[in-house]
Design a protein that fits this description.
4-stranded antiparallel beta sheet, 12 strands, TIM Barrel
């Protein structure tokens, strides 16, 4: 990995995983396993990737098993951020068969979904190798899963955009319309903003880009611009601000976008539309 991969703090991880377990276990717990299996029966199970991909979510799976039964022994056979082949063991868990089965689906849901996000991100990251462009995510995340999905983006080699509305200013088209233009919107932000917070403005024309640059913003989001216009934007910018390209980002288009010279390429699809990676828990 080109940067340290930090797992989300357990305090945040536990909250999300516990909610998932509560949703699945309901009011009476796993009545199937409790009736089928003796209370003392023990088992060993291995979480396996059935398809090749980049892995994320093992920390969430481990947390699910530990929250259910602190005596379960969980060992990681792979690491978040690893790219693996089909059939690769990812995690092994030993202990109460009832507890393992009760946590199975929650663990698989987290690993399958988050590995899908990481795999989709990795595909875009690999497609722009050799350029300076970095792939970033957006706020288009599943409610309640943003921390984990943004972590999965990092597992795939991508970079996080702002986590929420409170950690960065992004003046979008509706802000501009409501404020009466880019200039009044930016001026109001600079008048009330702390010096530690970055300011980004979304533009859809070179004329708007020029206005934003003259106002001294940190980053400009170039919305739905074709590669030819993106190249013009890079020339006009002349290194004054960081440039982020957004819109129509696919595996087929991302390389051409990156070769225009932009600094960042943002994709909502890597979180909101990433297909699950097929994983299974085998006893």
């Amino acid at each position: 990995m080109p940067f340290p991969l930090r797992t989300p703090p357990f305090l945040l991880l536990e909250h999300t995983v516990r909610l998932a377990l509560e949703e699945d276990l309901g009011r009476a717990g796993d009545i199937t396993s409790d009736l089928v299996l003796p209370a003392g029966q023990r088992a060993t199970a291995v979480l396996v990737a059935r398809k090749a991909g980049t892995i994320a979510g093992l920390a969430a799976a481990e947390a699910a098993f530990h929250i259910l039964d602190g005596s379960l022994k969980v060992s990681l056979e792979a690491r978040d951020g690893n790219t693996v082949e089909a059939g690769t063991p990812l995690l092994a868990v030993q202990g109460s068969a009832r507890a393992i089965l009760a946590g199975e689906r929650v663990a698989l849901n987290f690993v399958g979904h988050l590995s899908g996000v990481a795999t989709a991100t990795r595909a875009l990251v690999d497609a722009v190798k050799g350029t300076k462009a970095r792939i970033v995510c957006t706020r288009k995340t599943i409610p309640g899963l943003r921390i984990l999905e943004k972590y999965a983006v990092r597992c795939g080699g991508g970079v996080n955009h702002r986590y929420g509305l409170d950690d960065g200013v992004l003046i979008k088209d509706n802000h501009i319309v409501a404020a009466g233009g880019i200039k009044p919107a930016v001026e109001r932000v600079f008048a009330g903003l702390g010096h530690m917070v970055k300011v980004e403005v979304e533009v859809d024309s070179l004329e708007q880009l020029q206005i934003a640059l003259e106002l001294g913003v940190d980053t400009v989001l170039l919305d739905n611009m074709k590669p030819d216009m993106l190249r013009e934007a890079v020339k006009l910018n002349a290194g004054r601000a960081a440039l982020e390209a957004s819109g129509n980002v696919t595996l087929q288009t991302v390389r051409a976008i990156a070769e225009t010279g932009v600094d960042y390429i943002s994709s909502g699809a890597i979180t909101h539309s990433a297909p699950n990676l097929d994983v299974a828990l085998d006893f």
